Each structure stands twice: as structure tokens, then as C-alpha cells.
């Protein structure tokens, strides 16, 4: 199928109004291109491992929309031109020009799947849900995940490092605390490695949904994995619900600025000899995190690992 793509050069200020106007006249599949950086709050609803750095925002944007070439008689484009003309009375549209190009698409919904395939981290196979388990995977832990609906897929360096540490330290029957669990991928992996129980905490209610979806996809029961919404750092109710001195491993793949206050009291939830496996630390923050860990006399750092510009710090409760 061939599609005519129309691109509107405009401003970031006008993007929402233009998108709404296009929707009102029956245009679907709107695509926005800009350099507006996501906030931490916005990122909570996005399915990404970390917030990417973008070029400076110059205030310009492009709104693309697509029309089936067989049905494109110019009517919708004329309506779009009129909507843009009307919007100029209320907002700075910028250029407001519409340019046309042609594109071919085989399957709008599933085309991206050709770029995402099974990969391994240590002895763990991470496969998309639409691929079958092969003979090669048998005898190995296998994580099935839908990258279209997950907060993290395991492909980011920080996630990879934590997974490698889980493979190294998880023992059969262990209890896991997953702070900032997101999609629950680390908890599910720990259970695949033989852990008996995992509890995840996250500030984002969407994490509950994502974790439950990934649990079902990987045949993990609610008795094995639970997720609660809340802040374990300063919410006494959440701390009490998590329990004290009862976990063999605590993992936290979160920002360095969160790991630092977390390191002050996280030992309260750990058994003596338990491991605290962390990442999400950019290398420019490594010294800060290491120093924060060292201030807690209950913790001793046992490993520091690097993958690209990212850092893993693993500590043990004395």
C-alpha cells in the first residue's frame, strides 16, 4: 500500500492545536517531530529505559500525517490548509507550509518488529513475545517480553549489568526486593534464576500494569511476584509493607540522584550478607554514588562494573 505523507512545518507552541484540528477533520496517524526534552514526570508514562538527550529545542516542529494514495483526492489536505489558516488567529503557526512526499508501508502496526529479535545476556535469552522458544533456548532461562508495552526490554546497558549481577548472585529460594521496578523485568529475571519471591515498588501506577502483563507472559504467579505503588525512601507505610531484614537481594536500576538517598537506609530491608545491586548511574555520577554507599557503615562495596558510559555498583550488607 502506498501513502502520501504530508509534513507541516510549524512551531512547538502550535503542535497540540494542529494535531487536534487534524484529528477533528478525520486524519489519523499523526506524527510529531521536535526536540522538546521529556520531563521526569512525562517519562513515567513512556516505555523507555532512560530519557534520551536531544539537541537544543529551537521552537520548531514538524507534524506529519498520512493519507492512502488511492483515497487522496485533495479534500483532506484542503481542509488541513484551512484549519492552519484559522489557527493563525490564535497561535504562532510559524511557516505553516505543507509539503507532500510518498511512502510505502507494508504493515503500519507490525513493521517495526523486524528490527527486534531474541538476544542473550549471560545465559538468559530475552525474546519478543511473537517469537517461539527454539531448541537452542531449552535448558536456559527465557524471558518473553513485548517491547511495545514494556518500560524496559533488557537492551539498555544499565539493565544488562543488573541482569548479569542477578545471574551471579541469585540463589534458589532467594527473596528479592526490586526498587523502581518499572516493567518488572528484573524481578521476573530473578525468579527465572531460581528466586522464590519478588516484591517490586514503583512511584508510577503504570508500573503495576506493565509488571502484571510481563508476569502473565512469563507464567509468573501473583504469589511469586507482587508490586506496590509508593516511595520506599520516605514512606513509612511502604517501608513497613516491604518488611525488614527479609531480602537476600535488593536491586535498583534507577537514577543516581535516587540511589544516593536510598542507600542511607536500604540495609534495613536486607538480611545480613544480602546484596544491593544497582545501576542507572551515568559515569559522571559514579563517585557521588560510591561515596554515598561508603557513608553507610552497614554496606561494603564488592563490585563496580562499567558498560559504556554506565556504571553498576554492587554492595553487600555486613
Automatic annotation (TrEMBL):
Molecular functions (GO terms): methyltransferase activity
Cell compartment(s), UniProt: Cytoplasm
Major location category of this protein: cytoplasm
SUPFAM superfamilies, sorted: S-adenosyl-L-methionine-dependent methyltransferases
Coiled coil segments of this chain: none
Residues noted as binding S-adenosyl-L-methionine in the record, renumbered to the chain: 159, 180, 202, 253
GO annotation, biological process: methylation
Taxonomy, superkingdom: Bacteria
Annotated GO CC locations: ribosome
Keywords (A to Z) from UniProt: Cytoplasm, Methyltransferase, Ribonucleoprotein, Ribosomal protein, S-adenosyl-L-methionine, Transferase
Record flagged with keyword Cytoplasm: yes
Enzyme Commission number(s) of this protein: 2.1.1.-
Catalytic activity: L-lysyl-[protein] + 3 S-adenosyl-L-methionine = N(6),N(6),N(6)-trimethyl-L-lysyl-[protein] + 3 S-adenosyl-L-homocysteine + 3 H(+)
UniProt entry tagged with the keyword Acetylation: no
Pfam family, one: PrmA
Stored HAMAP family: Methyltr_PrmA
Purpose: Methylates ribosomal protein L11.
Family of the protein in this entry: Belongs to the methyltransferase superfamily. PrmA family.
NCBIfam families hit by this protein: prmA
Full protein name: Ribosomal protein L11 methyltransferase
Species lineage: Bacteria, Bacillati, Bacillota, Clostridia, Lachnospirales
Amino acid at each position: 500500500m502506498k501513502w502520501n505523507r504530508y509534513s507541516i512545518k510549524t512551531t512547538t507552541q502550535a503542535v497540540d492545536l494542529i494535531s487536534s484540528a487534524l484529528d477533528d477533520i478525520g486524519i489519523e496517524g499523526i506524527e510529531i517531530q521536535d526536540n522538546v526534552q521529556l520531563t521526569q514526570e512525562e517519562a513515567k508514562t513512556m516505555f523507555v529505559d532512560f530519557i534520551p538527550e536531544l539537541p537544543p529545542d529551537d521552537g520548531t516542529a514538524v507534524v506529519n500525517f498520512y493519507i492512502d494514495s488511492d483515497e487522496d483526492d485533495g479534500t483532506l489536505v484542503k481542509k488541513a490548509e484551512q484549519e492552519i489558516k484559522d489557527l493563525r488567529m490564535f497561535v504562532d503557526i510559524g511557516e505553516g507550509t505543507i509539503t507532500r512526499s510518498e511512502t510505502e508501508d507494508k504493515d503500519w502496526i507490525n513493521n517495526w518488529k523486524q528490527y527486534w529479535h531474541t538476544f542473550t545476556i549471560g545465559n538468559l535469552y530475552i525474546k519478543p513475545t511473537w517469537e517461539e522458544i527454539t531448541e537452542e533456548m531449552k535448558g536456559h532461562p527465557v524471558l518473553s517480553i513485548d517491547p511495545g508495552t514494556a518500560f524496559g526490554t533488557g537492551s539498555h546497558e544499565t539493565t544488562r549489568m543488573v541482569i548479569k549481577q542477578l545471574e551471579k548472585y541469585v540463589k534458589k529460594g532467594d527473596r528479592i526486593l526490586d526498587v523502581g521496578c518499572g516493567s518488572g523485568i528484573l524481578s521476573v529475571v530473578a525468579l527465572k534464576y531460581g528466586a522464590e519471591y519478588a516484591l517490586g515498588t514503583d512511584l508510577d501506577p503504570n508500573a503495576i500494569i506493565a509488571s502484571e502483563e510481563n508476569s502473565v507472559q512469563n507464567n509468573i504467579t501473583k504469589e511469586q511476584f507482587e508490586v506496590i505503588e509508593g516511595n520506599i525512601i520516605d514512606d513509612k507505610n511502604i517501608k513497613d509493607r516491604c518488611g525488614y531484614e527479609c531480602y537476600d537481594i535488593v536491586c535498583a536500576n534507577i537514577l543516581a540522584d535516587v540511589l544516593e538517598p536510598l542507600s542511607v537506609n536500604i540495609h534495613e530491608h536486607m538480611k545480613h550478607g544480602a546484596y544491593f545491586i544497582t545501576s542507572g548511574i551515568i559515569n559522571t555520577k559514579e563517585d557521588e554514588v560510591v561515596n554515598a554507599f561508603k557513608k553507610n557503615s552497614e554496606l561494603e562495596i564488592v563490585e563496580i562494573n562499567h558498560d559504556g558510559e554506565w556504571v553498576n555498583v554492587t554492595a553487600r550488607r555486613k
